User: What shape does this take?
Amino acid sequence: MTPRALEHAPYYVLAAVIAAAAGVLLAWWLRRRTMVSIRNVYLLAAAAIGVDVALLYEHVAIALRVMVPLTAFTIAAAAIGRRWRLSDLGAGEELRAHERARRWLWQPAVTRAAGERVHIVSQGQLMRDRAWPASEPFVPLTARLDGPRVPRSSGRHVFCVGATGSGKTTSALRAAAGRAVKDRTALLFVDQKGDPLAERVLRALAATTGVPFIVLDPDAADSDRWQPLWGERPAEVVARVLAGIQTSEPYYADVLRQHVGLVASVLYAGGYWPPSMALLIAASQRVHYARVLELARAHRTVHPDLYERVSAHAAFVVSAEGEKALAGGLVRLDLVMGEAWRTVLTPRTDSTGTPVAVSIADAISERAIVLWRTHVDRMPDEAKTITAVILNDIHAAAAHAQAAGPAPWTCVLDEFGAVVETAADQVLALLQRGRTHDGQVHVITQSVADIEALTGKTGLLASMADNFAGFIVHRQTAPESRDWLAKLMGTDALWQSTDRTSGQVGTGEGSRRRVREFRVGSDTFAELAVGHAVVHTTLGPRPALCAVRPLQLPDDRALQRIGTAERSPSEMIVHPALQLPAAPTRTKRKTTAAAKGNATKSPAAATTAANAGGRRARLAPRDEPPQPPPAQPPPLVDEVHLDELRAADVARSADADAPATSSSTNGGLNGV
Ligand SMILES: Nc1ncnc2c1ncn2[C@@H]1O[C@H](COP(=O)(O)OP(=O)(O)OP(=O)(O)O)[C@@H](O)[C@H]1O
Ligand SMILES: [Mg+2]
Assistant: This one.
């Protein structure tokens, strides 16, 4: 270096310092915001040093004015960048993987999903920001369109949780109504408590969108009527209706299903289809089995197998074992459907005198808003049973409605925790059905911890959570619930520093280690105000806290109700019989042909014809011509009069060790 060159030393020092600072800035930017490796700068620094040496060797001092700051820039960037690189490699996990994925300048850029951005923030926290997928429809939960949101496409179910009064129903109504309005879906709302808010909002929504509003509530004077017995397979129909009936042992549930299924098959074959619930319950009573047998006998030419099964079953029905196995379930069925829900399950008579009731498949096709209120506080057992029927009906109706064309639906299960013990399996089935049959389900509950605690099913919570794409989390106080939700929303890894102290004073020394921290801390959920929620989805953006905007709807529009006039498009025709005709006595058996005539000419023929029209054709019973009675009925081993069955049963009981009382052996059939 010549003395002349030293004259410019202050310039070189200043330029080198400024350039070095810029180099540090470059290294910072490359590390935090790009996927370009700092190793590229190593090459530049080496090249700069090489040029400097060459210039010194050649005594081209003037060029050093440029090369000194350039060299300082690259060396500073390379030095600090290398330190950070080694630190990131040493951090392990995702930060190490991120560092290793960085590229040389000549390598192609890392491809990412549209809107995805990966960057490092303070404390070495790797942030992966994903934008909401452009093709994914959503419902914004705030006034801002770009704010927190939940998905609204079919199969993307939403879970809403929060302590009582925290704003769950308000939030879920906004999310579900968004889909109902935007995608023109039917809205099926199961309200366990009888929440006036839900009814008010749903009425206003139905009035605003001009769709029918259907209320199914055993306590409401203006309740509509509901027909859960529909479909072409009596055994399936019965399975749907009996799913919620609790029996002390699974065997009794199976026997009940077999018995009522057989009765339903006879009603179907005899043209009493679709039967009212009252008819099915009445015909299923053991005391009326003779009537079922008689109806099966009247149709045995067309359905010989059925007659054989029904007559073979008669011995069981009148036996002591039959009484023991069936009595409890039949009483339960009668208590729930024949008493508590009797009015709702009894068809109304329309202006033409035809019995009609709401078919959920038709209500879905009509995009109706249906509100069930089960009053779980007052009738907990009935609510559990009827919820199982509701969920099974929606499950079957969703598939059935699709057969006639697009029929999207949205189902909201408010206060699901109240019925989770009995309805968990049905809800899982409904979530699955939503994916395949254009539906979205919103499950609302007070505490996530309840789901496993009440059902005793370990792993149920996890398997349910796997089905949800959106979570609206309101205030949660239970620590287990808060911890579970914090875990659900994921963690970020970051550097945690520790200070070494001597006495009470920090020594200035310390260490750091990589730790995982919840994206949303468990305590956050305990501090949420009413209407505030943490919104989490599996679709992109990170969880965000927001104040949910309640749905605001005009309430001055006219509401479409079914009323008392002619049949609504959401209703189907129901068979008018409430009871099967009494079976003839043994002496009258010779006039069986007349009974057969009565059965086949029953009002079912009218039901069949009316339901067969148009869209209802799919719900119509089979269209079979009445069969003439056989001239010489083939002798059947089971073709015995019930008196004979009773006699045979008494004999069997006498043979058995079990004492047989007259009441247990006659099965209550004396009144037949
Ligand atoms: N997003 C909100 N903004 C303003 N007020 C709200 C909001 N959400 C709820 N509220 C208020 O809180 C009350 C309770 O709301 P909501 O019924 O939705 O809560 P919930 O959690 O469903 O209660 P519950 O457990 O009793 O069913 C509402 O009457 C309403 O006044
Ligand atoms: Mg509520």
Observations:
- Residues 255 and 544 are 51 Å apart (CA to CA).
- The chain has three domains: 3-100, 138-227+350-483+520-528+541-547, 234-343+584-671.
- The radius of gyration is 37 Å.
- The longest strand covers residues 505-518.
